[in-house]
């Protein structure tokens, strides 16, 4: 079998176009502010794509640049000013931050109602508890991809490789909310290859190029590669051995062009949701509203082990 490609570039573009159409009908422009500290090369690239995507979809987007040596107190002042500014609906402080700044203190300074990254502990706690809140963009984007592929999650064995606060943990929470049977793997896990071989849905978010061997993939499995690794030749590659995995999987995301573009589209989605929720026009949904799309009881895996 050769897997079908889960084309995040195209699906993300479709989501951004739909958001743009909604924004055009609002009568106001949802405000997004991205704060970037210093000149980390990857951050420069990502922040530029976020700003461009936001403007294209009709958002009022501005990037705030601060020097590498800005004191933590200076960054906290900027965050507080954005919290207080009624024109601002979404605030994102790009990570990583320079070493003299405690990222946790900064993330906790963001108003949870404007926390479009979903990184504030209030939003993380709400997600863990199944309460309404803002959900991190990358795992939310993965849920959109799974919906697009028609993956039936209830009862499915889902394996999440990586347990970071920004990807692995919220990913596992969303899959669990969608009634998957979730296993989390991390650097202390034993038998990682065997655990992956049992996965009907495998999400890799480690940051080690090609760590997931092609022969860890169950025939027909859905493989989502969150990893973004810069190779020696300058090209980007995921955490999954792509060609070998594609020969076995049912669906697979490429890198680039898979999860990354969905992260950006979901940032816009979160900014629109935050803007509407702040104005009392909508209530935020549990699990970012993405889990229930999957919980249709009439769909089920029913393939038994291996999916073949
Ligand atoms: N596409 C996108 O939009 C995004 C992509 N990324 C990419 O995703 C990847 C992961 O990012 P992030 O979650 O922030 O990374 P972190 O470094 O914060 O977390 C990595 C996780 O992988 C686990 N891990 C490390 N080594 C191993 C190993 N040998 N076996 C099993 N588990 C291991 C760690 O375990 P432990 O907890 O035990 O240390 C940790 O839980 C990176 O490549 C990053 O660039 C990140 C964000 C967005
Ligand atoms: N506060 C904060 N929020 C984040 O969401 C956040 C962050 N900090 N720091 C860094 C990570 C990483 N991240 C990506 C976003 C888009 C792509 C993306 O669009 N990738 C393209 C390729 C881009 C390229 O060519 O370099 C793709 O995969 O096709 C990747 C990675 C968001 N992050």
UniProtKB/TrEMBL annotation:
Parts forming coiled coils: none
TM regions (residue ranges): none
Residues that coordinate or bind NADP(+): 162-164, 228
Pathway: One-carbon metabolism; tetrahydrofolate interconversion
Domain of life: Bacteria
Keyword terms: Amino-acid biosynthesis, Histidine biosynthesis, Hydrolase, Methionine biosynthesis, Multifunctional enzyme, NADP, One-carbon metabolism, Oxidoreductase, Purine biosynthesis
Renumbered residue ranges of the record's region Disordered: 288-308
Tetrahydrofolate dehydrogenase/cyclohydrolase NAD(P)-binding domain residues: 136-276
An annotated GO cellular component: cytosol
Domain Tetrahydrofolate dehydrogenase/cyclohydrolase catalytic: from-to ranges: 6-117
GO MF, one annotated term: methenyltetrahydrofolate cyclohydrolase activity
Pfam families: THF_DHG_CYH, THF_DHG_CYH_C
Function: Catalyzes the oxidation of 5,10-methylenetetrahydrofolate to 5,10-methenyltetrahydrofolate and then the hydrolysis of 5,10-methenyltetrahydrofolate to 10-formyltetrahydrofolate.
Subunit structure as annotated in this protein's UniProt entry: Homodimer.
Protein name: Bifunctional protein FolD
Organism whose genome encodes this protein: Muricoccus nepalensis
Species lineage: Bacteria, Pseudomonadati, Pseudomonadota, Alphaproteobacteria, Acetobacterales
């Amino acid at each position: 079998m050769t897997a079908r490609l889960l084309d995040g570039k195209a699906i993300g573009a479709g989501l951004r176009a739909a958001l743009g159409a909604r924004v055009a009908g609002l009568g106001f422009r949802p405000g997004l502010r991205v704060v970037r500290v210093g000149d980390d090369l990857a951050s420069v690239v990502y922040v530029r794509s976020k700003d461009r995507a936001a403007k294209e979809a009709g958002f009022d987007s501005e990037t705030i640049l601060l020097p590498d040596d800005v004191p933590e107190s200076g960054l906290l002042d900027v965050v507080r000013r954005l919290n207080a500014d009624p024109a601002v609906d979404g605030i994102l402080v790009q990570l990583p931050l320079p070493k003299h700044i405690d990222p946790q203190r900064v993330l906790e300074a963001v108003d949870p109602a404007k926390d479009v990254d979903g990184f504030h502990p209030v939003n993380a706690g709400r997600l863990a508890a199944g309460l309404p809140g803002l959900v991190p963009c990358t795992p939310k984007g993965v849920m959109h991809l799974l919906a697009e592929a028609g993956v039936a999650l209830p009862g499915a064995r889902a394996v999440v490789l990586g347990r970071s606060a920004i990807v692995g943990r919220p990913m596992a929470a969303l899959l669990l909310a969608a009634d998957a049977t979730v296993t989390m793997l991390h650097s202390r896990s034993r038998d990682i290859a065997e655990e992956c071989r049992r996965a009907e849905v495998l999400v890799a978010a480690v940051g080690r190029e090609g760590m997931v061997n092609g022969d860890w993939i169950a025939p027909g499995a859905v493989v989502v590669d969150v990893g973004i690794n810069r190779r020696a030749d300058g090209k980007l590659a995921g955490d999954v051995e792509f060609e070998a995995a594609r020969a076995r999987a049912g669906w697979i995301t490429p890198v680039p062009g898979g999860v990354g573009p969905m992260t950006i589209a979901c940032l816009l989605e979160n900014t629109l949701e935050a803007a509407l929720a702040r104005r009392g026009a909508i209530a935020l949904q549990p699990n970012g509203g993405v889990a229930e799309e999957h919980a249709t009881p009439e769909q089920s895996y029913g393939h038994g082990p291996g999916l073949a």
